[in-house]
Design a protein that fits this description.
By secondary structure, the chain is of the alpha/beta class. It has a single domain, classed as P-loop containing nucleotide triphosphate hydrolases (Rossmann fold), CATH 3.40.50. β5 and β6 form a beta hairpin. It binds adenosine-5'-diphosphate and zinc ion. The site of zinc ion has 8 residues, from loops. The site of zinc ion (ZN) has 8 residues, from loops.
Length: about 220
Amino acid sequence: MYIVILGAPGAGKGTQAAVVAEKLKAAHIATGDMFREAQEQETELARQAVSYMEKGQLVPDEITIRMVLERIAAPDCVNGVVFDGFPRNLKQAEALDEALVEQGKTVDKVVYIKVSETELLERLSGRWICRQCQTPYHALNSPPKTPGKCDRCGGELYQRADDTVETVKERLRVYFAQTAPLIDYYTRAGKLLEVDGEGGVDEVGERILASIGGSLIGQRSRG
Ligand code: ADP
Ligand code: ZN
């Protein structure tokens, strides 16, 4: 299965994509994580991407699309992929469709995690992430058991450089201008599953899995 997780910054894409990927035994491809990993290894890719990320803008399509197409050619992607943070505009969505069609595959479902703008702003300011396993925490809503340490793996927690108030605003602006139109694009393709993203992590996760499961049963009984 090829699933796209769509939603604004702070909607919980990363957390939920990991849950879905594990359940479906699919690879989890998070372009934001890939760029941040590249930054730590100081690669050429990172040098090109960093200035955009710092400003909260999209990394140019040619760089992003090339990176993703290389990644989906890897052997762990043959059984399916959960895309998180990609596609983020129409051009990327079309490039993904083309690449999958060439392999006789398609994006099966798109889960749109819907969260109100007020809630997004609150979540993004106060976010801490594990340096090792990328699990996100929130200073108020979901603090770690030991301050500064990951519950899952004991890794060090850090705040993303682009989680500052100004950059958060720019990321939301870019989202509404460039990424939100994909909701329409995938609705027209008959692939969109809208899920309420407010509530606890487990609660939202269950809604998503139920929605994917329900849509598959619907398909089978129709076919
Ligand atoms: P969030 O969705 O919470 O803003 P991500 O970790 O997905 O965070 O992305 C962080 C940054 O990485 C983005 O603001 C952007 O600069 C860059 N990025 C990630 N995915 C893409 C993409 N598909 N296209 C262009 N830039 C991207
Ligand atoms: Zn961790």
